[in-house]
Model the fold of this input.
Amino acid sequence: MKISLGALAALTAFVLPAAPASAAPAAGTDTVPPAALVARYTFDAGAVNGRVADLSGRAPALTVRSADQGVIRFSGGTVAFPAACRSGADACPRGLLEAPDDADLNPGTRVFRWSARVAVTKAQLAGSSNVLQKGVSTGGSQWKLQIGATNGRAQCIVAGTGTTGSYVVRSSQTVADGAWHKVVCQRNGTSLSVWVDNVQRGAATIPASLSISNSLPLRVGGPNFNTHSDMYHGQLDDVYAELG
Done:
């Protein structure tokens, strides 16, 4: 019996196993070597005494921080951040999660990936929404995952020590549709790539010498509490980082 090419492709797509939750997907053109899990926060137990436990055994706990009466809500194994500020409001409730500097989160030039499951709508985007980051791009170094305000695309950003400016790769599709999407950012040698739901959706070339190392904290849900911070206003789950 002959099978059409379309049917064969559909059958192949059906039987391929999904990538493991704690690893970047192995499909596509970007090689993914073995890696060590160095941070993972699933939010299944919520926050205990204002802290979210790390499940990798290698990273510090996240501390809940807020400003202007911002409330971070934990429910059903996910975390939801305060809504975007109303136009003309005098004060904007804000919240983020923060862990202190940790050596495993300073990858230097090594292979590194960082990931989160996101659920956000276009209406919840108020500027670029910072999901996950460590460091800054101005005069230091940084790795970051954010959602762009214009098209709701996932953006992976890196900046190196001793340099100014940054490198960014954007996903070819939006993730701001209200559905859950797994986003993975990966730096591997001269490649910076973004994956959405286990499929590579973008790649950019970066210098092999680009080194990421800083003494700043890991922050989830926003960069800081400045007036014009790029806060994230959706839901998150399964935040993790892998090194090596």
Notes: The CA atoms of residues 46 and 74 lie 5 Å apart. The chain is about 5% helix and 40% strand. The longest strand covers residues 235-243. Residues 5-15 form the longest helix (11 residues).
